[in-house]
Amino acid sequence: MTSSVHIREHYPDDLEGFLEWQTDPIYSKHLSWLPQSREDAISNFGEAMRQQNIKNRSEYFFAVIHSELNQYVGDVGFSLTEKWYGNCGWFIRNSQQGKGYATEAVMQLIHFAFESLHLKFLTASCRKANIPSYRIMQKCNFIKQKETDRRIWFFQSSKNWSPTNFLTNR
Known about the structure:
The protein is an alpha+beta fold. The chain has helices at 15-23, 38-51, 101-116, 131-139, 163-168, and strands spanning 5-8, 59-66, 71-82, 85-92, 121-127, 143-147, 151-157. A 7-stranded mixed sheet has the order 1-2-3-4-5-7-6, with helices on both faces.
């Protein structure tokens, strides 16, 4: 099965798409740290680009690219929280949401984290009201870990992961 999207390191041409989701107030309904000022968003993009050149990097944020059209549709990535653990997140441009791109990109991210970097765990969380992200975590076989009145936390273990999960869930 061919994927509709693929993940890759950021290119300078991704900046405008990156700025869209970082600076648009519509994304703040699910992320308390958004929107960012244009200057802060440019700085964040610069940091994502800078991390690409660090041998033992602590952040892996990738562009999500529409495979057929070669267009930027969002971001997916994780920050290392300790040696074998990462905390992941995803951001898909508003015009590209609801097409399954985030699920495909998160599956590729999990595959990269466990198969290439040999991480042991990935965590993710979302506001309870963020039903699309909740569904993405379910489709990607994350396990619910904790729930409060406002937020839900999930984890994914490399012990429960195999490349066949990646191939069958796409």
